[in-house]
């Protein structure tokens, strides 16, 4: 190269460098370089059990180098990975790497295992990658560590999965991906909406009489402002607990709420509600010794928030004990936290979810403070009403640990006693008022329903909404299947044996994760699995059920094998033994929607 040409080249390089520096320092704050995790958002998930999907969301104006993407196994040592098959990218002549391939906007890779697993394995991977900004600034190489639970297929045929798209990713997977894509405020708003929807589910209903009982207990001293403070402390503490325990579950893969479903804890908490209910009936007053009352009275002159702490503590306990079921939004956040370790964004999403679930409670609490009469005999029937609701919550809790026929008998007793209090068996006076007639009518309905529940308990019924399901009018009806004929499995070995049998018979497999303390699981049994159309659609499917009520080591191993935190969850397997992950059902699904899912599946 001549001296003149070399001089021109050096002059051009200097000019380009000066131009780059000028461009960099002349950009506005909004154009400043993004943090590495914002420029290259990374997320990993398991697809078809032995295929790992690696996802990058690349910000506009940034790109990722193909040749700098490396995946290595940290542990266990025996797991080996196949070479990655990269999709087509954009050719780029780079000053550092020369002629290379880069990716803009997004990148999705499928990492396969060299050999099928023979047992459930937790695999920890290190993902190394590097990218640059179009303005000419390159980031140092980045490393992400992810832990994934992989399930063996016992050497059954494994077909190469197609590249996942939004249409064939599970619902919770789409929610987890949305956490990567969305802004912080959009994430908070989205999960606030999810919480509002979840507030309409039965898992949240028992919190209504709990909070109402706290508010009604203040009697004549209750004001609208005080009702708001009590409700807010209850809801805020519940949301904080939801976020904290959700983060721990996402990081450590354990449903800590399930730990609180211990029979002793449920019995004590149920007994507490019975005591509170009986005090509302006026059978006794719960109060502290006089000396302690005087001390607290003195303290209350300086501190007016003692009852707020009590409301907050009840909010924490209610969250841990009342509603341990897993729904799709919760599962999505837990997947995101487990894969990325981003406890801050995951915690914000869970807190927003908890606040959304608590908004109706807040409205009900404030309404109680505004609408309820403050004095007079009208308060007594209202206290009785909420006392009955607290007794219902107590029964609802212990039905998780008692036989179905016993709980049906308890419900029957509650309705019959309420009917007696409403004077269902008393004769109305000649000049009775409209309210007296209404009271007797409601009492008569409760009395009849209580008797029906007793008959249902005597016939072996288990569902308060269908107490006479076991009664039949003909021999033909005796063979009617009221629920799906599940085969129970206890551990991973049982599942593998069942999958092998289904493979030999060329059957699809449905695996239902169930627990006695899971309200949504019982909803599925009562309203979805009992539908004849669902039973017909599943007649050629091998039906398996894993009862994880005890939450023992085998139960947790089975849940961890599929990266599940807890029930309800329904998984589907193809005849070759691989899970069809995009069709996972997390949480309650109505019969019509579930039937559509089955039709798409086959």
From TrEMBL:
Classification of source organism: Bacteria, Pseudomonadati, Pseudomonadota, Gammaproteobacteria, Thiotrichales
UniProt domain Thioredoxin: residue ranges: 462-602
Disulfide links within the chain: 132-138, 203-325, 518-521
EC number(s) per entry: 1.8.1.8
Entry membrane topology: Multi-pass membrane protein
Any GO MF annotation of the entry: protein-disulfide reductase [NAD(P)H] activity
Name of the protein in its database record: Thiol:disulfide interchange protein DsbD
Gene3D superfamilies in the cross-refs: Glutaredoxin, Thiol:disulfide interchange protein DsbD, N-terminal domain
First-listed, main subcellular location of the protein, grouped into a coarse class: membrane
Entry function: Required to facilitate the formation of correct disulfide bonds in some periplasmic proteins and for the assembly of the periplasmic c-type cytochromes. Acts by transferring electrons from cytoplasmic thioredoxin to the periplasm. This transfer involves a cascade of disulfide bond formation and reduction steps.
Domain of life: Bacteria
Organism: Cycloclasticus zancles 78-ME
Family, per entry: Belongs to the thioredoxin family. DsbD subfamily.
Record field: catalytic activity: [protein]-dithiol + NAD(+) = [protein]-disulfide + NADH + H(+); [protein]-dithiol + NADP(+) = [protein]-disulfide + NADPH + H(+)
Gene symbol of the encoding locus: dsbD
């Amino acid at each position: 190269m001549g001296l003149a040409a070399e001089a021109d080249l050096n002059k051009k390089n200097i000019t380009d460098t000066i131009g780059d520096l000028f461009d960099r320092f002349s950009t506005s704050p909004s154009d400043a370089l993004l943090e590495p995790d914002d420029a290259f958002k990374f997320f990993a998930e398991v697809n078809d059990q032995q295929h790992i999907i690696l996802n990058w969301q690349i910000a506009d104006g940034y790109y990722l180098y193909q040749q700098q993407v490396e995946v290595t196994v940290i542990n266990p040592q025996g797991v080996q990975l196949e070479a990655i098959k990269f999709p087509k990218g954009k050719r780029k002549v780079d000053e550092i790497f020369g002629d290379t391939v880069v990716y803009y906007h997004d990148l999705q890779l499928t990492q396969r295992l060299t050999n099928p697993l023979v047992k459930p394995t937790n695999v920890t991977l290190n993902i190394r990658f590097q990218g640059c900004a179009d303005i000419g600034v390159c980031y140092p190489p980045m490393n992400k560590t992810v832990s994934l639970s992989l399930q063996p297929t016992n050497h059954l045929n494994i077909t190469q999965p197609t590249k996942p798209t939004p249409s064939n990713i599970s619902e919770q997977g789409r929610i987890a991906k949305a956490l990567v894509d969305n802004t912080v405020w959009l994430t908070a708003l989205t999960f606030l909406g999810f919480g509002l929807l979840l507030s309409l589910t039965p898992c949240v209903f028992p919190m209504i009489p709990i909070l109402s009982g706290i508010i009604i207990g203040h009697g004549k001293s209750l004001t609208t402002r005080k009702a708001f403070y009590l409700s807010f402390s209850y809801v805020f503490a519940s949301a904080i607990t939801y976020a904290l325990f959700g983060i721990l579950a996402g990081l450590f893969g354990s449903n800590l709420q399930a730990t609180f479903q211990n029979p002793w804890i449920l019995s004590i908490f149920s007994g507490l509600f019975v005591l509170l209910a009986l005090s509302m009936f006026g059978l006794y007053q719960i109060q502290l010794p006089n000396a302690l009352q005087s001390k607290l009275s003195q303290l209350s002159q300086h501190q007016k928030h003692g009852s707020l702490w009590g409301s907050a503590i009840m909010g924490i306990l209610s969250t841990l004990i009342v509603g341990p079921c897993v729904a799709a939004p919760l599962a999505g956040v837990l997947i995101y936290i487990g894969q990325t370790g981003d406890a801050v964004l995951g915690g914000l999403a869970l807190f927003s979810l908890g606040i959304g679930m608590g908004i109706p409670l807040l409205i009900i609490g404030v309404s109680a403070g505004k609408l309820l009469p403050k004095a007079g005999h009208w308060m007594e029937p209202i206290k009785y009403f909420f006392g009955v609701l607290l007794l219902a919550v107590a029964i609802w809790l212990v039905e998780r640990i008692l036989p179905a026929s016993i709980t049906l008998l308890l419900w029957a007793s509650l309705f019959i006693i309420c009917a007696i209090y409403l004077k269902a068996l008393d004769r109305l006076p000649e000049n009775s008022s409209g309210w007296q007639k209404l009271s007797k009518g409601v009492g008569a309905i409760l009395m009849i329903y209580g008797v029906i529940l007793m008959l249902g308990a005597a016939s072996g019924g288990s569902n308060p909404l269908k107490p006479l399901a076991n009664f039949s009018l003909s021999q033909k009806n005796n063979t009617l299947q009221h629920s799906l004929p599940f085969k129970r499995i206890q551990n991973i070995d049982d599942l593998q044996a069942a999958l092998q049998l289904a493979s030999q018979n060329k059957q699809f497999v449905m695996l239902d994760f169930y627990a006695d303390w899971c309200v949504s699981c019982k909803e599925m049994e009562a309203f979805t699995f009992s539908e004849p159309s669902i039973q017909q659609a599943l007649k050629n499917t091998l039906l398996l059920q894993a009862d994880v009520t005890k939450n023992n080591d085998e139960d947790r191993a089975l849940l961890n094998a599929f990266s599940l935190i807890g029930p309800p969850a329904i998984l589907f397997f193809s005849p070759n033994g691989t899970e069809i992950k995009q069709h996972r059902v997390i949480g309650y699904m109505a019969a019509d929607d579930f039937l559509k899912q089955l039709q798409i599946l086959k």
